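Lab channel / #folding
Pinned by the channel admin:
"Please post every new chain as: sequence first, then the structure tokens as a reply. Keep commentary short and put observations after the output so the thread stays searchable."

First post following the new format, from NK:
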Amino acid sequence: MKKWQLYFYGEIFKVFFFFLFGFFFIFSLIEYATHMDDYFKTSTLTMASALVYYLNQFMKRLDFLIPMALLLSTIKVLTTLNARNEWTVFQVAGLSTRTLLKPFITVALLCSVFLWTNFEFLLPKAMHNINEFRIANFHGSHLAKRRELIHLIPLKDNSKLIYQSYLSEKNQLFDVLWIKSQNEIWRVKYLNGDPANPVAHFADHLVKNANGNFEKVASHRTILLSELKWHPQMARKGLIPFDQKKISELYKLSKNPSASPYELPRIKTALLFKTGIPLLAPLIVLAVAPICLTFSRFRPLFFIYALGLFSLFALYMLLDSLTILSDHAIISPTIAVLLPLTLLALIVGWRFKTKCI
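Reply from TO:
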């Protein structure tokens, strides 16, 4: 690696991490101020658990913080190189704009890879830890005292467990439906809350007949449902949103033929969003480079920063609005996620080609 490349990488990472951890520090202060009363009321809270909680919150918001930090660091480094005429010196030395921008593109691609890694491995665990921390320490959290009329637990075998309430004194689920498949349902009055011993009390076995109607084929006062496998903590969490699942898990769910028409648009929307949003990183570099490298006696730095931040916020607001429409099957997930990113890539690529190549 040449000296000018090391210099570029050093400047990029220095500004990038300054903005990234600056945002994290500000967010942590706001989060602490919001839940200050809960911290003082909880005697079991430790500094280590609080630090892990804020790190998990940091992972939760990386899909926006990393593109914003990359945007600000790219603008800062490029405008500084241009203002000091260092960019001109490198070009006079025979280095093209495309060659000089390679470190910025490399950093952007690293950001994309890290965002995909975060969606696949880090974010699901982080969301689990956030929920557990809130249940244990935030007394006002909706997770600590669920009041829904119906609780839904999706199981790994694509079956679903629906229950009315959880009886903590008996460690039992009350008024349970286990939808094992489209043709088989178990209706249970009391189900043990221990997944290692799923004993059902007053259970009816319903099977769909040739006419397409469910009929009761057996009744049991007590029976062990050995095929029923579920996680003990799911009773208080209920349905895990699709945007908190892994990319690989979303892909498998999108190929599942038994997925309901209500779930399928949400699955595909979350899958396309997690797959497409990391591609914003290289597009950000290609978008701001022509603006930052324009030669002018008076460089409107405030305008460049304001335009970049406003455009990024507007893009995320647009994607959020379109994904809501896609979740409700009003528009297709492809139009909601891939079409805006494709149009943005075409516009940015054309402008970069005409201005910088």
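NK: Residues 102-137 form the longest helix (36 residues).
TO: also worth noting, The longest strand covers residues 214-224.
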